[in-house]
Amino acid sequence: MWTENWSGWFLYFGGAAPYRPVEDLAFAVARFYQRGGTFQNYYMYHGGTNFGRTTGGPFIATSYDYDAPIDEYGIPRQPKWGHLKDVHKAIKLCEKALVATDPTYTSLGPNSEATVYKTGSGLCAAFLANVGTSDVTVNFSGNSYRLPAWSVSILPDCKNVVLNTAKINSMTMIPSFSHQALNVDADSTEAIGSGWSWINEPVGISKDNAFTKPGLLEQINTTGDQSDYLWYSLSINIKGDEPFLEDGYQTILHVESLGHALRAFINGKFAGSANGNSSNANVAVEIPVTLLPGKNAIDLLSMTVGLENSGLGKTGAGITGPVKLKGSKNGNSVDLSSQRWTYQIGLKGEDIGLSTGSSSQWVSQSDLPKNQPLIWYKTKFDAPAGNDPVALDFTGMGKGEAWINGQSIGRYWPTYISPKSGCTDSCNYRGAYNSDKCRRNCGKPSQELYHVPRSWLQPSGNTLVLFEEVGGDPTQLAFATRQTGSLCSHVSESHPSPVDMWGSHSKTGTKPGPTLSLACPFPDQAISSIKFASFGTPNGTCGSFSHGKCSSAKALSILQKACIGSKSCSIAVSTGTFGDPCRGVIKSLAVEASCT
User: Fold this and answer.
1) What is the pTM of this model?
2) Is 404 in contact with 462 (CB distance < 8 Å)?
3) What does the radius of gyration of the chain's CA atoms come to, in whole angstroms?
4) Residues whose CB falls within 8 Å of the CB of residue 89, separated by 6 or more in sequence, listed in order
5) Closest alpha carbon to 500 in 570, 451, 432
6) How far is Cα 49 from Cα 391, in angstroms, rounded to an integer?
7) DSSP 8-state code for residue 454
8) Which of 228, 311, 487, 594 would suit a FRET pair with 1, their CA atoms being 20 to 30 Å apart?
9) Count of CB atoms within 10 A of residue 388's CB?
10) What is the pLDDT of residues 467-513, one digit of tens each?
11) φ and ψ at 52, to 5 degrees?
């Protein structure tokens, strides 16, 4: 039993987006059943969204898409969904033999193996595996089989290949997002930009239930996870002759924290910030500050970004010290860690329910404050037209949380940029998978688009509330609706025929060959254009196909005639269909289409 076959991996704030090629995932599934497996479960099969404060980690992003066969928006991810469907259909064709007997194993050469399930009554199913990273040709039961690297061929009758895990018959769909500005509610007096309203979140202690304790408290035990936020506040008296002061009243504020993020304020003004990451949540920061004669307020806002969801959960969070004031040149310092600190769990705005947008304290003026920390924003908007899945693009904002009609769509953090290196345009699926092997979107925000369920939206009069921690411009927010940009498929003459055609030769007397199929994803769509078609030796991948050294001159017109105006189409991948542009070469058909 296999309880977690990872379809991909989760996204961290500050990390590039991981993915797992379907050829590798299909190989893992087929190998499991080849070797006698009885039950396997995908984690995840349907991607999702960590709404509210439900993310784990810490630092796991709001999107939990996981590169799953069904994506975060509920749309099949192709070709992953379709190819895995074909894999399970192929295994199902072997079911009677698999459950009737134990397998026998035979080596077919280095890194190659045959597994046969055969009964005395004549049932027979076989799996031929190549666990190496180079293609091989093997002999099995008197026949020759070409096995691509890191692949399994499934033979439901021990003779004919119904599927090879490295050869994909399913089409590819490239998603696209169409951006549009937030549309103001036609019945509202508020207009986007001029109609945004706001409330400043107080710096430091502002609630009656604040309390004072000696020393620095661990955050999670203190807050009970009621909020991401815990204020640590201290008042100190400065005479001017302290040894840690330099050049008048200049000094360094040194803060160490278990994480996950920190904002520092001196006398009500923002002084500096720092945050950890998924590998090391700890924060250590030194902030140059200027103190004043007399009383000075040090207010430190500590933030969690999800809690540990594996292991024993003993790491903790928050400012556990030391907290010091120290000279940058003379090395003199004073440790403030054991002082009597005042604590406030959560924000005042959380307590008075600003997330619902219903408070009477909202300020509406033409000079909307932008790029300032600790501020709540509110506006009204109309839902985007149509039925396409919806996301909010948070480009222009810093870090915080957002609510629509009182429901939290989660933490946003578009300013946390992924590393510039470590990504690949095309990940080699051959060889063992790990979470760092295949990544994309290096040097970009880990997450810009945040899923908004259509079921949360009204046609008009929707309320959007933001709490912005570090500063941003809410007027830059935009909707993005998820659409299908292109459909593609690339099938060669060496591909098996589609799994659904298995057994058809017994009815027709003709063995089917490889077939390329396209289908629009939604019932009201039809194929409207063929952007690319080449039969021969085409290069590239979906969205960047190009003609190779040989290409049939008839391919484009044949595809246009067969597909345009139809919801779906299928065409045989053969010289009988397209002619032979280059004899003696295994040819393939590559097609890119669009639906409207």
Assistant:
1) 0.93
2) yes
3) 30
4) 499, 500
5) 570
6) 11
7) G
8) 311
9) 18
10) 999 999 999 999 999 999 999 999 999 999 999 999 876 566 678 99
11) 65, -135
